[in-house]
Amino acid sequence: MAPHTADEPVAATTITSQDSDPATEPAIASRKVTVRTTLPVTPLPALAGRQPLETERLRLVPISQDDLAGYHAIRTRPEYMVHSSQGRVDRDLGETQAWLNRFLPPNDGSTYVFAIKEKVVGAGPVGAETGTATGEGAEKEDDMDRAIGMMGIVRMNSGTGWPEVGYGINTTHHGKGYATELLREVVRFWWTLPREEVVVEMKPRYVFGTAPFTEGVGVLREEDPELVEMPERIMAVADITNARSLRVMEKLGFVRFAEWDREDDPSERDAACWLLRPTG
């Protein structure tokens, strides 16, 4: 993008971040920064018309109401939910349904989430996919069609101004490198969606980062302009005790830019925030 001057018109969609900072923040940190960037055209493509993605070992299928039972089984596992923002298992099927509704119509216009499913492997060479299965093979195919997790853009405006990617994989499938494999594909796909120029009002920390996490992000100074042009980002938030997720972020080139210390609210988990921008 070319530099913008104050007397040039800004012909772009304007979005306001919903985040707010404590009144005690210094003025330089609490002021708004206007960012001109690009984001996918919204509303996002309707869920009904979305196509599945594949990686070497897994399928990413548009999330569906049919996945409810599978997600309830996952979200009632304490070892899975311990690192979630909720921090506890779902109380009942209704709570899992409420979570799933966040990604189904009419909310698909601002989310783009996939169910993670394994590929069906037959008795032939390793990696060969079966056709129609019967008997024990059919049971295996049913197992393979059960969601083992989710991944995608869980909200377009998370309060930071940037789309937020989220994911979770059943703990029975940890240690296989699935998260890295899948997130790489989701990020690749995300950058292929049609874009539009937008103007977003953000808190400075979501543009410049917060000390000491400013490397590769930027440093806010008193003389910085009120309008900044920058390539778009994807944001991710991870529990700071979740070493697996932190390693995934690092492997894929996400830059750590902030931490949230939530000692004042024990119901909220401390978190590390990461940003990724497109390459090339």
UniProtKB/TrEMBL annotation:
Residues 57-255 form the N-acetyltransferase domain. Signal peptide: none annotated. Pfam families: Acetyltransf_3. GO terms for molecular function: acyltransferase activity, transferring groups other than amino-acyl groups. It comes from the Eukaryota. InterPro entries: Acyl_CoA_acyltransferase, GNAT_dom, N-acetyltransferase. Residues 1-25 are annotated as: Disordered. This is GNAT domain-domain-containing protein. It comes from Microdochium bolleyi.
